[in-house]
Design a protein that fits this description.
Elements: H1 4-24, E1 43-50, E2 53-60, H2 67-80, E3 96-103, E4 107-108, E5 127-132, E6 135-139, H3 142-147, H4 151-161, E7 175-179, E8 181-186, E9 193-195
Antiparallel strand pairs: 1-2, 1-3, 3-8, 4-7, 5-6, 5-7, 8-9
Helix pairs in contact: 1-2
Amino acid sequence: MLDLEDGERAVRTARKAIETYLKEGMRPDLSDEVPEKFKEERGVFVTLNKNGNLRGCIGRPLPSQTLIDGLVDSAINAATGDPRFPSVDIEELEDITIEVSVLTVPEKIEVEDPKKYPEEIEVTRDGLIAKCRGREGLLLPQVPMDHDWSCEEFLSQTCVKAGLSPDAWLEGEVEFEKFSAQVFEESEPGGEVVEKSFT
């Protein structure tokens, strides 16, 4: 678990990585500036929001990199590599709030009947990954809360994110994994960092 000081460091690091990349065109090496916790392998996502709207979100669901490396890469990719949005420019960054989600390792949800999936999911805690026929979609834990979704809607929307039909989860071919996350966000662009509550 990260404490608030760690969370603030994570968000500030993400902003610094984006600023450096946009100004200098190079990925900064910030690994010497962080505590040992950031050198552990963790899944991480960086989300950019502008005026309450999504502006970019990229990350790594699996602990395949150290937290610091995944954080820097995800931040730069969220700003410049999300195919849904044009690249952020340096002037625009002052209007963007940054959110960092540090993930637990995803675990497969085992059910005998697909209709039982909602019983294994807690909207105030879990993020989901849907996998089917080479397709994959992920939604972070804060997404269903922000949209006030039920478990069924959460399952359907994760399927849609994977390019599947909303009812695909009922057909028995979709495999789901769940994970939880600690989420730290700026209260305003470059402002105070708080830990997002899921209750």
